[in-house]
Structure formats: C-alpha cells, structure tokens
C-alpha cells in the first residue's frame, strides 16, 4: 500500500528561475560612482578642490619661516639687551665701590656718592633688620621710619644753614645716611656673639657711632658747597642720628 506525502511547492525568486524563460529578464544593479563635488574654477587654490589626491600632489606645505627679532637699535636677538639690574637702575659695581669707601673712614671718595641711589641703603637696612630679628627684636618698621625721619631732619638743617640755596636734596640725604649706617649694621651683627650689657659691647657701640658720624659728616661737608663752615653742627646732627640706631642694638 503506497503512502502519499504532501510536498510543498518550490518557489524561486524573481530572476532565479532555473528555466530562465518563465519570469522576466534578469535585472542587474550596476555600481554607482562615488559622489565628487565640483572642482574650483581657480586652479591656484588647491584646498578648494575636494579631490584629495590631486590636492596633495599639487600643494606642497613647508615649515613657516619667521623673521628674526629686531631690537630698537637694529641688532637682532636678545644678545644686546641690557641686564635686568641695569634696566631697574641698580648698579652693583657702584654699590660695591661705595661700600668699600665707607669701610675706610680715612680714605673716603665723595665723588662716588654724587650719584645718589637707594639700592645700597635699602640692602643695609634690610640686613640691619635681619640681624635684629635674629636677636629676637622685630625692628623693620622702626628702622625704616627712623631713617626717613632722620633724612628729613638733616635735610631741614642743611636747608636752614644754606638759606634755601643748598645743592643737597632729600633723595641724596637719604642715600648718604643709608650708606653711612653700615658700621651700625656691623655692630648689630657682632652683638649676636657678644654678651649684652657688658663693657665690650659699649666700647664697640662708641666706636661704630664715631665711625658712622665721621664718614657721614665728611660726605656732607664735601658734597655741600657750604658745609665746611658748619662742620661741627653737621657732625652733631649725625651723631644724634646714629646714636639712636645704636640704642636699638643695645636695648
């Protein structure tokens, strides 16, 4: 007895009929070319063309060349630039020469102090305050205030002696008093290693005060056109000023 099976019909897709004649002709999809935007009409501008190969072949890029820096004087580069301290008005050689002249009270060169500056005095005042700080005394404000008042006091005295015709201004007075305070700075440094209130520190104080007074008086007398006849009065004013600073060291 034969048994029948239900076989589903086989269906071929369009264009896939093996007979080749039942369906319509086979349709083929041709590949389309990639989209290329229109090129620029100006051939001298390669970046306007979207053809990468032609742009890379026609354009050659090189490292940009910058012109050298030209200074105001016409020299190239920064080799001829003045040093930073010179631009700030700080002459280290002049400060050194003035300091050496102060250290020798018998050979003082007053011509070095004709060009006044505050760089050296500020350095000495900061050193004075630092030595006082090491001794446990915070005197920075007192030192700067006393130097300003002392310069103003000596300037007024010199103006009164010269009948308002002197050639020393307040700036030069401040410079001279600041440089001549160097012996007091040395006294402040030595006092860190000497017992306070003893005979040694008192003798050193007297020597340093006389040293500062002699140097400051001689500078004022030589730089002022009228100071020779008032040497004693100028020396007395200088003695009072440096005696006050020495008392900061002792007490």
UniProtKB/TrEMBL annotation:
Stretches assigned to the Yip1 domain: 104-250
GO annotation, cellular component aspect: Golgi membrane; trans-Golgi network
Keywords: Membrane, Transmembrane, Transmembrane helix
InterPro entries per record: Yip1/4-like (IPR045231), Yip1_dom (IPR006977)
Entry-linked Pfam families: Yip1
Domain of life: Eukaryota
Positions of the UniProt region annotated as Disordered: 1-40
Protein name (Swiss-Prot/TrEMBL): Protein YIP
Organism: Fraxinus pennsylvanica
